[in-house]
Amino acid sequence: MIVKVIADDCVGCETCVPECPVGAIVMKDDKAVIDQAKCTKCKKCIEVCPVEAIKAQD
Ligand code: SF4
Ligand code: SF4
Q1: Parallel, antiparallel, or unpaired for β 31-34 and 54-57?
Q2: Among residues 25, 31, 33, 51, which is most buried (max CB within 10 A)?
Q3: Average pLDDT of the residues in 28-46
Q4: 52: confidence class by pLDDT, cuts 50, 70, 90
Q5: Which of 3, 10, 19 to mutate to test the pocket of ligand 2 (most atoms within 8 A of CB)?
């Protein structure tokens, strides 16, 4: 399983960035991007995204 941002759905609000406990989320071209090498799959970011742009995928 990986946690990823659906770029087409992300509105660039940056809400998720400070919520990640390991600093795995960065903004790139006004979209959130998750560094898979850092992500621990805690799913905290999924809960805070106001437009449900972050998904856990198999
Ligand atoms: S699942 Fe957790 S560790 Fe991974 S990007 Fe989201 S908040 Fe960060
Ligand atoms: S919280 Fe959601 S909409 Fe806002 S930057 Fe993060 S992924 Fe994009």
Answers
A1: unpaired
A2: 25
A3: 98
A4: very high
A5: 10
What is residue 16's predicted lDDT score, i.e. its pLDDT? 98
CB 2 within 8 A of CB 37: no
CATH classification of the domain holding 50 = 3.30.70.20
Structural domain boundaries, residue 15: 2-57
Question: pLDDT, tens digit, for every residue of 18-36?
Answer: 999 999 999 999 999 999 9
The ligand minimizing its distance to the Cα of 21 is 1
Ligand 2 center–CA 5 separation, angstroms: 8
Q: How many domains does the chain have?
A: 1
How far is Cα 41 from Cα 1, in angstroms, rounded to an integer?
8
